[in-house]
Description:
- The chain has 258 residues and is α+β, with helices and mostly antiparallel strands.
- It is 34% helix and 19% strand.
- The N and C termini lie far apart (74 Å).
- The model has no long low-confidence stretch (mean pLDDT 94).
Amino acid sequence: MHSRVENIKNMMIGKEFQTKRKGKCFIIDYKGYNNVLVKFYEPSCEVSCQMQALKNGNVSNPLYPSVYKNGFIGIGEYSSKDEGLYCLWKSMLLRSYDDKYHEKYPTYKDVEVCDEWLNFQNFADWCSKQKFFNAKDAKERPYHLDKDIVVKGSKIYSPNTCSFVPSEVNTLLLKRGKSRGVCLIGVSKHEPTGSYLANVKHSGRNVHLGSYCTENEAFQAYKLAKEAYIKEVAEKWRGKIDDKVYQALLTYQVETTD
């Protein structure tokens, strides 16, 4: 029996196989039909598998960028069976690299994921260590992965820019560029009089701040009210969000370029 396995091993070593989606590999060790070690050419990686799976082309290279052409599972304790983590990671890659998503949401066209997080293992490990990962608000809504509160205007998902925040905080700083028109943020023009109106969204409802002669005056009224409201929300969630998020909200400044 031993000599038979050795004979098969000698015949199999070096034999190449083409997988369905993850490139070409070759056998580097054969310990039995259910215990075959293969090595992928690109990206270079060793994987244990069954001979039948290899023949069918169903062996996966965990380093192959197969998720939205950029992300890969990697080698480690996490897998796609970790549904919460995997769905969160895949959703992040969707927003960053899917053309159809960008057609619908063009503000995400310049968004990307840092190299470290293209590897699912690194992303999952980071998430698992975050205090507010899997946290929920009073309405049982899960916290969101945010990329641009800690670093204002950030276009990259990374450990230095991201944090988990409740829905109220996540939507607090949305620009809503499409709906606000050509005026500065928080400002609209009243065409019949030529005056400028300032409005701020507070606790889910629009609050009228007044009518002004110039666009800049209206913007300054909005800026004052918005920054005060942001601080109010920061205090509301203090202790229930990362301190770096709390500090970013306290020091947040509304600008004309927003």
